[in-house]
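Protocol step 4 of 6: record predicted structures for both targets in the notebook before any analysis. Target 1:
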Amino acid sequence: MSIPRTDIDLLVLGTDVDPHVQSVLAQLPDTINVMRFDIDKYPVSFSSTYSVNQDAESLIFQNKHLYQCVNNHSIVWFRRIGAPGVSKEIRDRSYRKFANAETEAFILGLTSLLSSSVWINPYLSTKYANSKLFQLRNARNIGLRIPATLVTNSPDEVRTFASVYPKIIYKTLSSPSLEQNSGRSLIFSHLISDSDHVLFDQVKYAPCMFQQYIEKDYELRITFVGGNFYSVKIFSQDSSDTKIDWRAGDWNHHRYETTNLPEAVCQQLSSFMQVLNLQFGAIDMIVTPNGEYVFLEVNPHGAWLWLEQATDLCISLAISNYIQRLCSFRT
């Protein structure tokens, strides 16, 4: 018996454990054919085949019941990439490392094969945008206010920076997640105290990011979807645990309030996202007691579900509607 073959309308690059994917897909009509490329389940749970010769090429995914063909009319939702799901049957460490590298090489190649498809967000744009240095430079060029920032591995430079700005914070350049023998922990933004100055010599071991501390009235989490903004006030100053970094507290116990951004800020952020070539992003900003808006960063893979639960925003539906519009343009 032959296996049915269909064309994919939407290819989702994500992970099986990410609830945001299912929240969006649940809003899509059945007329949109979706293929989930769950990186953490590949290559164990489904197969892929790329074929090319002088006359033609094809990219096909197959599970037990269906061949699914990807083409340049497919929409690609690049939610995030995790570690591949290499089979546990490969026990030898060197072989597992090799299989993992081969799988990652295919996934990287996949992004180039589909470069002419419509992406949310484009793969290379997302990789560039993950750089906080790249973000800050472009935010400044657009005209957004940013905190004075120093990234260095020179202890002397940090001491000079601390003498200019009496209150500074340390934050990570990459993921704040730290894997230890005791488990996973998070490195939150940290206000540098006088006693921390003795640690400045350790900066020489790796580049470190320091910023001028900005006093806050409240913080903003702004979800950008296809040109629209979904903005939420986070009243981080309500608790001493979250004054420096709102992520340090229980997200379910924060006080939230939906809000509209000033038109000038919307225009700046729209220009910023256009320069970064991002159609989706979770933007963090500070609003000072004087009402100034200060840009901190944007996460091209940011979360939003907890905001939907805390407010009346329908961000998953907005993403679903955006995908549907893109699909209608491609047909």
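Target 2:
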Amino acid sequence: MADKTLFEKICDKDIPATLIHEDEHCVAFHDIAPQAPLHILVVPRQPIPRLALATPADATLLGHLLLTAAKLACDAGLAQSGYRVVINNGPHGGEAVPHLHVHLLAGRQLQWPPG
């Protein structure tokens, strides 16, 4: 059996975290190294290592992650001012934990191109 990722441990409550959202498909919490005034991670309970390894069977879950990020942004009053949703894939994409997750960034003017 492979070791659990950090995010699996958070989802399983092996590591304590202050969850701001939790449902049967995902959890959400503030990033410990925020890159914007609001930086929330939306993490699926199902461990998919990265977007490139998702399959058509994961489509409903992937949609749920995006809709959850949008709801959290709306709940934070950011629907009008805007926000960014990011999924990093692989080392050159900025992936730090091999467990697919969505970054919700907001609260300041975000630049383009990123990185």
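Step 5 preliminary note on target 2. The chain has a mean pLDDT of 95. The CA atoms of residues 9 and 15 lie 6 Å apart.
Proceed to step 6 after PI sign-off.
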